[in-house]
Design a protein that fits this description.
It contains eleven helices and ten strands. With 284 residues, the chain is α/β, with parallel strands linked by helices. Strand 2, helix 2 and strand 3 form a beta-alpha-beta unit. The protein is elongated, with a radius of gyration of 20 Å. The two termini are 24 Å apart.
């Protein structure tokens, strides 16, 4: 997080309070990053609001620019502005959509997570990050090269945030129940799958220097397990990866990142593998 020089902060005038701006100020204060404020609206003029916010932030000592823009829809506007300004992180407040709306329409935040080349921080609370728990969600059962690269990105960012905020990094990984379990009441016998998962977990801990106390392995659906562990640890931010599915596969399968953002009480930082980042940059 220290290497990010510019933050794109999505300002939404209809919200009573900008959680995104509060979090951006906290990050910028610690990292000395530049703030670029964006309002996406084609119908109303928000120049007065942007001027007030910009002047106030400059008075407080922040480096700030601002713009109102519109490109077809909100998530496209955010992505185009991020590319124009070269911002290394998009910060946006997340407001839960109704179940009916999510059934009928793909939420804007889901579209942003799928299509934005840069990391996206969805802010859900104004609780300070300082001295808090940073939770990194990974899938230690997938040890192929692509997943390990994504895991490294998630853990590296988690460590950076923990260092920046004087917090503590914890890691969570969920594994599904094995299809066939051989269990004896007196002499429990792990299945081959469970043994393999435990071995992969130990190797993950060794590679990334994660102690047993900070490694949380649970059986169950990833979205449920991540939510449970985040609540138990009172995490201030959860770092998660996404494969950025689009089209029919996204509609049928969904992404854990998309499913979990409405369930978590913490902020959510969503990262992507490098190959997907390059692919999305080419599309933009």
């Amino acid at each position: 997080m220290q290497t990010i020089r510019s933050l794109l902060v999505v300002i939404e005038p209809h919200l009573m309070e900008s959680f995104a701006l509060k979090r951006a100020k906290e990050i910028a204060k610690a990292s000395k990053a530049h703030l670029h404020l964006l309002i996406g609206d084609k119908e109303h003029d928000h120049s007065a609001l942007l001027n007030v916010l910009t002047n106030s932030l400059i008075t407080e000592g922040y480096s700030v620019t601002s713009r109102q823009a519109w490109h077809d829809n909100l998530h496209t506007t955010i992505i185009k502005e991020q590319q124009i300004e070269g911002c290394g992180l998009v910060i946006k407040q997340h407001v839960d959509d109704s179940i009916l709306k999510k059934i009928l329409l793909t939420p804007d935040d889901w579209k942003l997570l799928r299509d934005c080349p840069t990391p996206v921080l969805l802010v859900r609370t104004t609780k300070p990050w300082s001295n808090g728990v940073v939770l990194a969600a990974v899938d230690v059962g997938n040890g192929d090269e692509d997943h390990m690269a994504l895991h490294k990105t998630i853990i590296d960012q988690g460590f950076r945030i923990a260092s920046l905020t004087h917090g503590e990094l914890h890691v969570v990984s969920a594994h599904p129940a094995p299809t066939l379990a051989v269990m004896d009441a007196a002499y429990p016998i792990d299945t081959e799958y469970e043994a393999s998962f435990r071995a992969a977990s130990k190797e993950f801990q060794r590679r990334f220097e994660i102690s047993d106390e900070r490694m949380h392995i649970k059986e169950g659906p990833a979205d449920i397990i991540i939510q449970q562990v985040a609540r138990k640890l009172d995490a201030v931010v959860t770092v998660i990866g996404t494969v950025a599915r689009t089209g029919l596969s996204a509609a049928l399968i969904g992404n854990t990142a998309e499913i979990v953002i409405d369930k978590l009480e913490s902020d959510v930082l969503v990262l992507k593998p490098e190959d997907i980042v390059k692919e999305l940059e080419q599309k933009v």
